[in-house]
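Chapter summary example: a protein plus adenosine-5'-triphosphate.
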Amino acid sequence: MSSLLRRSTGLARIASNSLSASARSTIRSSRLLPTSQSAWAVQLKRYYSEKNPEESDKGKEAGQNGAPRPKNSNSKPQVQSSKSPGPTEGEAPETKKDGPSPLHPDWVLLTEDEYEAFKELTTKVPMHVDSSVFDIIKKTGLPVGLRDLIRRIMKGDARPSDIAKALKGLNQYYKGIKDYEFEELVKKEDPESYFNLPSKKTRKQNRKAQEQEEKEGEQQRPKEGEQGFNGFNSNKNPPGPNPNANPGQGNDWLTMIVGSAIAYWLYNSLFQESGREITWQELRKNFLDKGLVEKMVIQGHRVRVELNREATQSMYPDSVATRPGFHYYFSIASADAFERRLEEAQNELGIPSSERIPVSYAPESPFFNLLIAFGPTVVLVGLLVWASRRGPGGAGGSGGVFGFGKSKAKRFSHETAIKVKFSDVAGMDEAKQEIMEFVSFLKKPERFQRLGAKIPRGAILAGPPGTGKTLLAKATAGESGVPFFSVSGSEFVEMFVGVGASRVRDLFATARKHTPCIIFIDEIDAIGRSRSEGQRFGGNDEREATLNQILTEMDGFNTTDQIVVLAGTNRVDILDKALMRPGRFDRHINIDAPTMAGRQDIFKVYLKKIVTNEEIEYLSGRLASLTPGFAGADIANCVNEAALIAARNNATSVTLQHFEQAIERVIGGLERKSLVLNPTEKKTVAYHEAGHAICGWFFRYADPLLKVSIIPRGRGLGYAQYVPGDAYLMTYEQLMDRMAMTLGGRISEEIHFPTVTTGASDDFDKVTRMATAMVTEWGMSDKVGPLHFRNDNNRVYKPFSEGTGQVIDAEVRRIIEQAYKKCKDLLLEKKKEVGLIAEELLRKEVLVRDDMVRILGPRPFNDRDDFSKYFGGDASKAPPGPPPAPSSPSLPDAPEPPSSPAMFREVKGEDR
Ligand SMILES: Nc1ncnc2c1ncn2[C@@H]1O[C@H](COP(=O)(O)OP(=O)(O)OP(=O)(O)O)[C@@H](O)[C@H]1O
């Protein structure tokens, strides 16, 4: 559709250019008159003399005679081809009024019919046309080309090729008028005698008179209503050319009328419906049976129905079928079958053989055939070419077909998205320092290049999830103020082979256009996994191709390319060695879970963003010691969670209590108030938790106990909260105490109840893993010795022999039994205290450190400094305890084990 419109506007442009060219040519053509005119005349003569001079209007006459049934085409004139040398047999003689124009030898006067048709045509043009114009045309006639066009329009047989002839005729017409003015009128002494045009002298006088008139002012001018159309003064001049008027003006009007008529015809032929498909039944009922069909033309699998227009008009006055150039058509399977069917129909109608409807064959439009044959292929190829050129670099380059190969990297720029600075990244001072060098490289490259130093190409930021790797990369971009392209490794992977590599090419090509810049590839392990490892499991060609492309691109930088590639991963251990070698990711920056100080800094960053009246220094310290092992993302989440809890309680600011509830929620999960335990279950949970609490209180190396609860939370039915602190090394004794404490729940059940429950399975799991690690990784078994057997889940065979396996099993069992005995001894000794704590728990559901001190007396060992600072003696700073417990508590399932640095980390590592 759009191409059709474009074509039509193109034609319109040609038409308007031609019109304006003819208007502009006024002066020039008059000067070059003698030669140009003769050349033009000879040319036109040849051109138009080839035309069939007159075409018969016999059919029309038949229509005018009011014949109800038209004669079939044997008695009708056939439209002649333009090559036809003259009128054919049977053509009606020309109307008598036709003849050479007095204005020009190549012009002809119009017949009465042609003249009327021309007038009719101009009524379709939305403009007022003065009748004087028609008088002129009546007198002067029109160029043969224009007259022919009018004839064709009358017959409804105008073709696009006629447009050119019509425009040429129009040009000819315009020039003819001008020529007439300059040649004939000047020659004649009294030009007005024929065409009422003024002589040069008269024109000069007229001009002067006009100027004078203008000076006389508005009141002396004729009123608007008295003014003729465009200067033809209706008062002063009779209809017809005005002797006072500029001769060119009348011509302009004629040009416009004829031009508009052509435009109308063009519009009609291009945009008006020129045909409609009907069925055989419709044809039969509406036209064939009524004798309106004049001829049928078979074009391939289509039949064009030519109706007798006059007869059709009398029968269907409002039908589109009466419009010139309109045809009905219908589709056929085969020409033979159609002819047979038509014959049968005519037999049924009793049409004598002499009056049968003629059927002719016309070739299908070759253009149409070509379009059908090659159109779809051309469209498809065009689409592919277009799609492949959309991306920079084309199909083979980076864009790829339909943009599949286009990188999905998001681009952030300093002005828009990257507002992160190093000050927003708390903790990880060493990592910041390391990466700061990239900032100075991007800001002042000459400082390094001057000394011949090669700039590091990139850095791998490795660490557990949520520790701020992406944040650090963003901050690097924010500090250096350069564009930042962020993409995830998984976004390179698509199901099509080659897309990943193409996307890598596109990413680097785009980055090169925006140097200096930073590319950040998050989760690079998705594509950067070691190739040797892949081969073991069958390999992945697409991933390897992507990785190879990254390697190639990073090699392709020259030292002056100011592109830094940063990559983030949680699994640096599985990355391909080629990625890590100097010259690619030169720097390996480890970002671990933050230390106590780091957590405090991160808390400070986020506490600034919420409304709290607590003292920030104390609050951040206390929260940091409550959250060992938390990553930056967990801390951000905790602070936000506290703000949400405060908002839910309609508080005006976020208090310490809200923060502690938030931390409990993050560690232990949601409180399950709807979970109702029966009294026996509740009592079991209370004794189980009391066992853990007593162990935590009386074992030297146990982590300080903060709170014991029997309110179900998350997956557990009760929990004891410890503050483990950041321990980076653990002794044998610490591990044994921790294991004994973990077994405290089950042993308490054994001591206080006749039977045991399923609630301790999680504790056993932890103890077993700890003991196994002691034997197989930490060299804490004399029998196994200083060996390390890596626990690799992907491995199908065990890294030790059957014999060693048995020794390991025995050693693990021995260590756990040792811890068990240690715990049982303690709990038997403190049986009374366990009972006291359990009964208090059953009453209050939650016991805090102060309750423990009240019941058991002070802990016999000194607590860690940081614990004493935030949770020691000062009651005013002590946590107020959780909100009241639900009134109908309940039974156990899997009591929450005490947390420890090692265990806490393990659990988190597993969960993610
Ligand atoms: N050191 C930090 N200082 C301030 N905020 C931090 C810090 N570390 C993490 N965060 C917060 O945690 C959010 C997540 O961090 P980020 O996306 O950088 O983690 P990541 O290490 O890239 O995680 P992943 O490995 O899962 O991609 C950050 O948007 C930020 O709010």
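Key point: The longest helix spans residues 802-829.
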